[in-house]
Amino acid sequence: MNPLAGRKYIILGVVILTAILYISRLAYIQLGTDKYKMSADNQAFKYLTDYPPRGAIYDRNGKLLVFNQVAYDLMIVPREAKGCDTLALCKILNITKEDFLKRLIRLCGNLESAKKDYREYIFESQMLPELNARIQEKLYKLNGFYVQARTVRQYPKPIAAHLLGYIGEVDEKYIEKHPYYKQGDYVGMFGIERGYEDALRGKKGVSIKIRDANNNIQGSYKDGLYDTSSVPGQNLVCTLDAELQEYGELLMQNKIGGLVAMEPGTGEILALVTSPTYDPNMLVGRDFPKNYGKLQKDTLGRPLINRALKSFYPPGSTFKLLNALVAQQEGVLTPSTLYPCARGYPPLGGKPKCHAHASPTNLSGSIATSCNSYYSYVFKSIVENKKYKNSVEGFEAWRNYVLSFGVGKKIGTDLPFEAKGIVPTVSYYDKVFGKGGWRASTVISLGIGQAEVSVTPLQMCNIICCIANRGYYHIPHVIRKVGDKEDPKWREKQFTLVKDRQIYENVIEGMSNVVKAGTGRIAQLPGIEVCGKTGTAQNPHGEDHSVFVLFAPRENPKICIAILVENAGFGATWAAPIASLLSEKYLTGKILRTDLETKMIEGDLIHKHPSGGAKPKPAQH
Prior knowledge:
Layout: H1 3-32, H2 35-40, E1 45-50, E2 57-58, E3 64-76, H3 86-93, H4 97-108, H5 111-114, E4 121-127, H6 129-138, E5 145-154, H7 161-164, E6 167-169, H8 172-177, E7 186-188, H9 191-195, H10 197-200, E8 205-211, E9 217-220, E10 236-238, H11 242-251, E11 257-263, E12 268-275, H12 288-296, H13 320-329, H14 363-369, H15 372-383, H16 391-403, H17 426-433, H18 457-468, E13 472-473, E14 479-482, E15 494-495, H19 501-517, E16 531-537, E17 545-552, E18 559-565, H20 575-588, H21 594-602
Helix pairs in contact: 3-6, 11-20, 13-15, 14-19
């Protein structure tokens, strides 16, 4: 038999088998499933995203803080825009032909790429219904364009901009990390909008439309069989008291600084004020880019900075409270301990300096008079405690106490971009002074809340919550409910390393005396025992900062407040009156000290220094 004849049959068999496989696969694709048919016919389909409304945000009393308004995005598929009546579009949008081309180049890279680009882009974002109606009239002339229904955020009252945050369009880098989003989607950028994005955004739906050869939509694919409905975002109940927030912003207008008010028994943030602030409605709709640029250019007030959460400052004399607690826990300080003051700390020749007051003084008196010398002695006694081998070990112990109050680390609040603040380390001082080249007296200013230690207003308020609660705090948070659910972690107590309740009572007695007869008398409220502490934080970039902290009432406290006003001098001058008025408003629902209120509201520390001279250089952040 001819061997070539055998090969002929083998080759023929392979060809037949291959043909059978191809025919079977083609039959499966065409008859057995729609998946591949949809892929093959993709050019005939248009996928329209059904964007859900974002969840609304309410304050603790049910007042609406954020809601949605219908808006529209004008979308473009560049390669389908051939024959578009660009002049008509430019007229409606009030832009020039050059502006039109610049937008195409910004979206696609260049005009040649635009002719081939099949991706969808937002050409004009967040159009209100009036503008959309004008677009709809001409849409039949606008090849490559279609309108996508969206919602934009609206704010009934122009408050809490930094706390609420805003939404913006995602970029390619964000899409790479979060594949749920696509070009043209919006996402929470800051504040609650960012921190609770997953709950607020809901779930997108999609509808598939059939297009003819001229790109006209002919109807739904398979009568909507493959369409999915969107799921609205969840509503949030905020811990904020809208009236208190509004009042705090009123008192802080024309001033630079941060203020936090909290309910100590829950950790709920009642007010978080950053000043200067802005109307959150500015960062909504078509005017977003223009208004954002305007806010960025304000270099005097820098209103985009969240000073209450992100800026950290020397706590000044308010930090003495924490050192008094630590020293008692360490056994090196009692309520009757006396230390002298000669208008300064005697062992170092009167540095740090101090003001004139009775000397020597005990623990309660040292808090009431805010004695710098006393707390220099106190800090030295902690670091050089004989139970430790050396000052380094004593310093580490002191630092661990401070960290347990939520300072020098992120507390874990539900607001994004929280700053840690600074509590210096042994390695830092070893680097600065050399190993073994420093001791307590070298860093003595830590005893009075100066030197390298820095805290945010939120952390400052958290320290006061620890004192008001006599040894613990709840993690500060701004959301009470997501939908109908509460997060149980907010109910957990975070205990400090200072355990003895009597230690707190000793410090609280001094804080009460601050307001009754000490440096914070201006914070007195009729019939309510207020416990507070003034602070004047040194600032190398300008005049000192005015600082004040308080809680009230003394028993079963309902509110804690920490406030810092930049370049405003003594704590009793601006910070204490503002904090006192805020607590009066919250606890009594009215203001009796109207003269003081008027003075605080009308005080302008941005454009004119309180002494009448030129405004000093703003503090660094």
